């Protein structure tokens, strides 16, 4: 290593004695699943986001699948979405029997470009599924208007956007919100997810679908699988949620410091009036990304590429014959240029200075 500085990981989950005690309490209660902790966590998360309902599930992927099904997405339907996201954004659509239709992204924030969405709507379009990538909210006011005018469901992939805001509203309140609690997210439960909605019928269907389609035990009127969250995960989630705003503010402060210090590359942009919660701090490079990554690794700085290829270029999409004609040059250019740097709440001011100095030295 060329630096004596400690290794700075790209992500560091914050888990402590409160989470440990919460798990112990659940284990000692004997109620490990479908118990009071899940119900309490749902109420707490709904209050935090600002919706009437929150339905806990066992992953962010499950949240997407259940939300899509509850909004009537099924065989033969099309769902307009972003090609610049994790694969689950698209495979969740496919799991419902529908087809993802990839529309290009806004170069400002890497999110679905509303100006491209209307042209992609057909008679078989059932929903629009934007992604709040990296913690920056998509242009939801415009997307909600388009969805409303065309009678389409609006599903928010908010897996990276806990606490993000657009037009004074939190992500997950514009349509049906889908959050992930994977260990690297702004708050975590190990694995887990949650769906937020103000629609009573969507909420009712989500609760049925997540439990094998059963509204009454041992009678399945809907197709569903086991998407349930455990009380163990929910207990951890309740603790994490209490700290989320402090952690989000720390991420925002760290990102602000990094952007002031980094001068050699293009740093993240935040649309005026929006709240970016910096699940990732992602810069755009013009130089040799592999070489830059290697140099930063040598300096003790963890990095990651979110994401190295657009979803429509993924091998499984080629096998399925989906998205091969997608015209998404902005997304494909982003996939070649982006690099995520550490921004998590555990960073010290010394860490931030070290990251910025190394980036200015090695990256362009």
Structural description of this entry:
With 364 residues, the protein is of the alpha/beta class. It has two domains: 17-238, Type I PLP-dependent aspartate aminotransferase-like (Major domain) (Aspartate Aminotransferase, domain 2, 3-Layer(aba) Sandwich); 244-362, Alpha-Beta Complex (Aspartate Aminotransferase, domain 1). It has twelve helices and 13 strands. It has helices at residues 17-29, 36-49, 60-70, 88-95, 114-117, 140-149, 200-209, 231-261, 289-298, 315-320, 329-337, 349-362, and strands at residues 53-57, 78-81, 99-102, 125-129, 153-157, 165-166, 169-170, 176-180, 193-197, 214-216, 219-220, 281-284, 338-341. The strands form four sheets. It has a seven-stranded mixed sheet, sandwiched between helices. Strand 4 (125-129), helix 6 (140-149) and strand 5 form a beta-alpha-beta unit. Helix 1 packs antiparallel against helix 8 (231-261) and helix 2 (36-49) runs parallel beside helix 8. It is globular, with a radius of gyration of 20 Å. The two termini are 21 Å apart.
């Amino acid at each position: 290593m060329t630096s004596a500085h400690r290794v700075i990981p790209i992500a560091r989950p914050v888990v402590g004695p409160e989470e440990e005690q919460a798990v112990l309490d659940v284990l000692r209660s004997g109620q490990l699943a479908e118990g009071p902790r899940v119900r309490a966590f749902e109420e707490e998360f709904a209050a935090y986001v600002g919706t009437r309902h929150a339905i806990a599930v066992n992953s962010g992927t499950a949240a997407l699948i259940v939300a899509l099904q509850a909004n009537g997405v099924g065989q033969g339907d099309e769902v307009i979405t972003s090609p610049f996201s994790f694969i689950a954004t698209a495979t969740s659509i496919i799991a419902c029997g529908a087809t993802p239709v990839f529309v290009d992204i806004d170069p400002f924030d890497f999110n679905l470009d509303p100006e491209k969405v209307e042209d992609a709507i057909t008679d078989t379009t059932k929903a629009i599924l934007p992604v709040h990538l990296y913690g920056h909210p998509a242009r939801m006011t415009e997307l909600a208007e388009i969805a409303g005018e065309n009678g389409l469901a609006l599903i928010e992939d908010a897996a990276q956007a806990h606490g993000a805001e657009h037009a004074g509203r939190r992500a997950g309140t514009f349509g049906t919100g889908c959050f992930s609690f994977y260990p690297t997210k702004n708050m975590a439960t190990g694995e887990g997810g949650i769906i937020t909605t103000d629609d009573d019928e969507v909420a009712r269907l989500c609760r049925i679908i997540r439990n094998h389609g059963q509204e009454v035990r041992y009678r399945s009127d809907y197709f569903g699988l086991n998407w349930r969250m455990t009380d163990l995960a929910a207990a951890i989630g309740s603790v994490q949620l209490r700290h989320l705003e402090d952690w989000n503010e720390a991420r925002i402060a760290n990102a602000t410091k990094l952007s002031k210090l980094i001068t050699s590359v293009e740093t993240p942009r935040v649309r005026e009036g929006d709240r970016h919660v910096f699940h990732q701090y992602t810069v755009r490079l013009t130089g040799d990304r592999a070489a830059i990554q290697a140099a930063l690794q040598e300096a003790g700085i963890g990095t990651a590429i979110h994401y190295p290829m657009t979803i429509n270029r993924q091998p499984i999409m080629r096998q399925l014959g989906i998205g091969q004609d997608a015209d998404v040059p902005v997304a494909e250019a982003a996939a070649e240029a982006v690099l995520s740097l550490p921004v998590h709440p555990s960073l010290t001011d010394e860490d931030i200075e070290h990251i910025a100095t190394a980036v200015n030295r090695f990256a362009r």
